[in-house]
Amino acid sequence: MITKLTQQKTDLDFQSGQTILIDKPKGWTSFKVVHQIRKAVKVKKVGHAGTLDPMATGLLIICTGKMTKSISEYQDLPK
User: 20 forms bridges with which residues in the sheet?
Assistant: First the structure.
């Protein structure tokens, strides 16, 4: 569940593209996080820059809209 927005989502253009940093909770799949983001921002084009094990917590980089093209750049960075 999304519990905190650092900025009002109405101020952001998710269709054009945004990068969102998520602290993935234990027990959630990366797909579930993407699904929740899709519902929250009402944009179909949402992807993540790497899968985390469902029992792991940690940073999950989510991109929306045109920013999904930059996902490979994040994946090429060292962990």
Answer: 62
d(CA 16, CA 10): 13
Residue at 11 is within a domain: no
Q: Which residue has the tokens 């899968």?
A: 51
Q: Of all residues in the chain, what percent are helix, strand and coil, respectively (each to 5)?
A: 35, 20, 45
Joined tokens for residue 3: 């519990």
Which amino acids are annotated catalytic? 53
Determine the pLDDT at residue 67. Answer: 94
Which CATH number belongs to the domain containing residue 29 in this structure? 3.30.70
pTM value is: 0.81
CA distance 27 to 17: 27
